[in-house]
DNA sequence: AAGTGGTCTAGACCACTTG
DNA sequence: AAGTGGTCTAGACCACTTG
């Protein structure tokens, strides 16, 4: 079996939702209807519905039916994922636009965060990440040149800074801050926002074995992006 | 069927792991072994194993077996803190204003999240949390009345819902979503926002041993609140 | 009464890893 | 070759919501 049948059904349903054929809160086919349409047993149709429900894409009510949940891009809070992978794992196309890749004298805040001296040179990259041609995130990143001397020679339209950094300086630690902000004019422009709207801003400082590597400001429109996480405490009680 | 068979098997396995009978990375019974032990079909035993795997409690390898996963590292980004403690630990004064504490017929989305039936009664509380007399967070919370029958009798101007819930139904699991939104008029009013500004909204679903306990929407002005965290990867490599 | 989702059975064939 | 997990079938009974 090249592709599982339940996966094909999920794929089909996701497509219907994406193209808007099945709007939010509309009813989707029942287990029995899907089973007949795809010539599978009810258990297989059920699995497709069930997994989409666990992913937060559908919600179901016994005796009533299954419905499309409100949709948004979602990423995990717990893991630091490469945004390209994240987008592609949703079955969408990823692309990037490199706006800047330069060397700057280090602003005081950045110097302090990266353990550099004020006015020392620091690498800076500015990139827009697109999901299916729609800007999902503006990434402004300062990189410690002592740790990553070749940063400025990379082609960041083909590899994300995150992926490159994780290859040359494996991540050992990260610090996050999450804020809601109203973006400035410049950010609005690059995120194709006609009017300023609430944006999520992640500030992420990453560390490798030898200390602070980079400080990134990741800004995404609130209407297109959210962070999701899952915590499990069952096993933590023991220690 | 009072309690589903797959749930009983999960319960049993969780207990074994919690009491240390099944240490990290040790092998747990196979689908066939569990099916025989509990006199159920393999599909039912499989479901128990599968759900524990999705919860991150087990990991499985085809042809080899199922194993107890490693402890998750803690992330203060998602650390579930009592907001009263959080405010007081900054040396500020905490107070709360109870706006609503009622019983409602359950909306479909809430029912699905809490494992309740549509239109069944659900408890609802609405509270504003103040830091030094300034509103910091609007908390709208739906609570499973089957698990927390006395919720509606509590005095939430003196104890936060989070603290009360953690006392009567210890947290085993939590799911988070973080979004940036523009608040509606009602929210603006209670957060004393003259104009709508970007707000952080945490959606938090909490679980106890017996299932979903509550679903909370926590909304805070972006200018007054942010989430901060620290991730350590040394222990996280598992999959 | 008809349709929905929730649970379960007792089989089946498969791909995979191990001794 | 024996055991594991992965997928699937064609039934069954149930609780629930709706017309």
Could you walk me through the main structural features you see in this protein, from its secondary elements to its overall organization?
- Two copies of one chain form a homodimer.
- Chain A has 239 residues and is an alpha+beta fold.
- Chain A has two domains: 5-68, Arc Repressor Mutant, subunit A (Orthogonal Bundle), CATH 1.10.10.10; 73-228, Chorismate lyase-like (Chorismate lyase), CATH 3.40.1410.
- Chain A contains seven helices and eleven strands.
- Chain A has helices at residues 5-18, 31-37, 42-54, 83-89, 108-114, 161-168, 185-190; strands at residues 27-28, 58-61, 65-68, 73-76, 94-105, 121-131, 134-143, 173-181, 199-208, 211-221, 225-232.
- Chain A has a six-stranded antiparallel sheet. The first copy, chain A, has a three-stranded antiparallel sheet with strand order 1-3-2, with helices on one face. In chain A, strands 4-11 form a two-stranded parallel ribbon.
- In chain A, strand 2 (58-61) and strand 3 (65-68) form a beta hairpin.
- In chain A, helix 1 packs across helix 3 (42-54).
- The longest helix of chain A is centred in the N-terminal third of the chain and has 14 residues, at 5-18.
- The model of chain A is unreliable at 232-239 (pLDDT under 50).
- Chains A and B meet through strand 2, strand 8, strand 9 and strand 11 of A and helix 1, helix 5, strand 7, strand 8 and strand 10 of B.
- Strand 11 of chain A pairs antiparallel with strand 7 of chain B.
- Chains A, B: InterPro entries: Bact_HTH_transcr_reg, Chorismate_lyase_/UTRA_dom_sf, DeoR_HTH, His_ut_repres, Tscrpt_reg_HTH_GntR, UTRA, WH-like_DNA-bd_sf, WH_DNA-bd_sf.
- Chains A, B: Keywords: DNA-binding, Transcription, Transcription regulation.
